[in-house]
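Summary for the steering committee. The consortium agreed at its last meeting that each partner would contribute one worked example illustrating the joint modelling workflow. Our contribution is presented below. We chose a case with several input lines so that the handling of multiple components could be demonstrated. No manual editing was applied between input and output; the record is shown as generated.
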Amino acid sequence: MNITARRVGLILWMLIWCGGCGFRAKEDTSNTLHLALPTNLQTLDCGNIRDVYGMMVAGNIYETLYSYHYLKRPYVIEPLLAEGMPQISADQRTYLIRIREDVYFQDDPCFPSGKGRRLVAEDFVFAIKRIANVKYRSQNWPIFNERIVGLDAFREYTKTAADEWSVDYGMPVEGLKALDERTLQITLTRPWPQFLEIALSDAATAPVPKEAVDYYRARIPNHPVGTGPYQLVQWRRGSFLELVRNANWRGQPYPQDGEPADEAAGLLVDAGKRMPFIDRIIFRIIEEDQPRWLLFLRGELDTSGIPKDNFNQAIDPTGRQLTEQMRQRGIVLHTYIDPSTFWIGFNLKDPLLGANKPLRMAISRAIDRQRMIDLFANGRGIVAHGFVSPGLNSYDPTIADAGFSRYDPQEAKQLLAQAEALLGKPIPPLKLGMPGSDNVSRQMGQFLQQYFKEIGLTLQVDYMDWPTYLTEMKNGHLQMFSSGVSASCPDAIDFLEMFGTKYFSPGPNCFFYSNPEYDALLEQAQVMPDSPDRMALYRRMERMVMADYPAVFTMHRIAYALHHGWYKNVKPHTFSYNVIKYRRLDLLQRKNYQRLVYEARP
Amino acid sequence: MTAFIIRRLLYTVPIVFGVLLLTFFLFSVIGGDISYQIAGKNADAQTIAEIRHEYGLDKPLFIGPKGNRLDSQFFNHFFKAITFQFGYDLNRERIIERIGRGVIPSLALTVPMFIGTLVISIALALVSAFLRGSVLDAVLVVVCVAGMSIPYLSFIIFGQYVFAYQLDWFPIFYVPDKPIWYSVALPCLIGIVAGLGGSLRFYRTVMLDEMRNDYVRTAFAKGLSVPKVLFKHVLKNAMIPIVTNVVLSIPYLVLGSLLLERFFGIPGLGDLMVQAINSRDYFVLNAITYMMSLLIVIFTLLTDLCYAWVDPRVSLE
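What follows is the complete predicted structure of the assembly.
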């Protein structure tokens, strides 16, 4: 029996070992880029995309009229599907845009004979009208709300339609016309200086062929049909997406100029060469940190963020640089400001908080933001002294001196005494709505409770699921709420609009902050072209809001991104999502790395 | 027998009704309005109203308007379930298609895992019970208790790190280019090892109970060989608890393994369930819960039928 048992054991072991050998990852010699997405995608229908990860994929499939220069900083807008910059009328309201004649949609069964047709101006008209279609319920409508002459009336008309597909897109919109196959005319209701950045370089306005919408109807989120350098060939929801080169793409040369340091950084090696350089892209949905990190270390993913638990393995906490282990692997680190702002918002409709500025100030003084950043973001952030993030062109570098976000528990206690005097009784317990009930949310809740307690306030935290939180916040039912925003373009107007009375929730103003003087300045700022005067106005408006303490602004995020040395031409771009066409893989370097990793195993 | 089956099928009606009632309260009454989430951050009131209309959230909760009292969220919830027309998820994909797509990967993982655990644990349980009190038995019991004490997640993290990353025997994560068995091998082995402790302990107790019976002593006294006594007599008589355990486990095989699928990227129903929870897709959760309840009811009935099949003493009158 002993011998039999040994034989069985030996056979089992050989089976597992041989099986294991068969499973060994092979060296990847194909010109394929492997990326990970930490969450599932909702849609690839450009008219309805608003999430970052959706944009990261869709940015390679769709193109817009304008885009940002890949290398130049500050960011510069340049034509992409447009032949040149638009002709703008003297009153700054009418834009005349010529469209390139060498642009074709990808091949797709939605076209007769399956061959992608040439792009025409009417495709842009259709794309924007579709967003206005209320039955389509696009998340991108706020971009165009009250912006284009006649578009709001078209939206009103769509309310009468039976469903999304029975809307007559032939119905004219005065401010949105295809003058001929290659000329698009857009008339705005009033000047909109950020029109190119916010609308015409946003995936929302990417041209969509009507044939595709009619052909795929409800399935259109899974069947993007664009003009970009790549096209989707496979999407297993929740698992992976596969993109390959679009054979109909016209090609585009790699930029020949950039910032002074770009040449030394090797970012101009491919100058003038025809893009794209990569044949195939695989986006794998990997929600857990461990497999994502291990795949990156193994060289099976070309880029990675740094999971919280692996931060010390990747980054030396003293110098904030890569550890020796990472450097030896040839891994490259990019750190850059991610233009974003996070806050604990006050609902100013709340009778207690709305009427008691000393209380709001006391809470602001009570919270140690730097400690919050160290604890919850591994130090990957900077204290928000204002709400306009660094990285935006109107960021005020001197705003820290105003001390709006100063941590001063003593002053907080004095302010609290004033607040209680104003109320005429002790401050009752305050309530904070927290989106999420996971560990990190709870730790954050406890962290804030501790700081409130230090100055003599009681904080109750309601941990809510996301839909409940959104509904409660949007309806103004939360006394305080934890939230944040990322910039979509280098201009801070989005941030400023968050405090306009006109933008009360369900718009972005969930603070219900209302200041007639501010509103008047906002009206003025919204139509001002970029100038030193406008920058001064933006900064004045920011300080005006900060002085009213509608929120405890906590942090701006700093992004830490890693990639392997074989992934070339990488320059972080915070506003553009069509960047993979610029990137190149050194396949030999990747193959050698994977071989070394394999040989180094125990 | 027929009367028994009919009676048991009738029992399923209040059970399924109860499940539907519970899911309605959980997802529609307590769960909150998801229209703001679907609409996106800065949506206007019109868009939100359209969404509420599309998903029927603008209808009364229980009783519909005059003229059509059944046109309420409550009754729609029932009609959808009974007709298996679950509609679309938050991404406008047909729920039934998503569920259908997840079944095969889930079964590819759970069926071999289940069979592996079952065969190994029963075999070891027989040996352990036969050699009770020996060093081998003591070692097995200690290993089982240790295995049961270690969190499932630890097995996954350790297995993935050592066997996939360090030793490079298996892929770390689901590989889209390869057949599904290539990606499920390691999670399957981890599942077997992690599940062995509890399973072995259970079957060892069952086998011990059987080994104490007179017929076992008689069989040995007759001079039958050890394998014959164990596998032909003891195992056969221990079939009732085994059948109960096996048949009732089958519905859960379809559901997959939440943690294993998530860590190894297996695109099965477990992963779908986690995604639905994360994205608060109550429509998907609702459909999966309902279908699971149906499967459990059906397999409970099958378990009862199997009793009669494996043990002639059981009568389904």
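Chain A touches chain B through 60 residues (CB under 8 Å). The radius of gyration of chain A is 27 Å.
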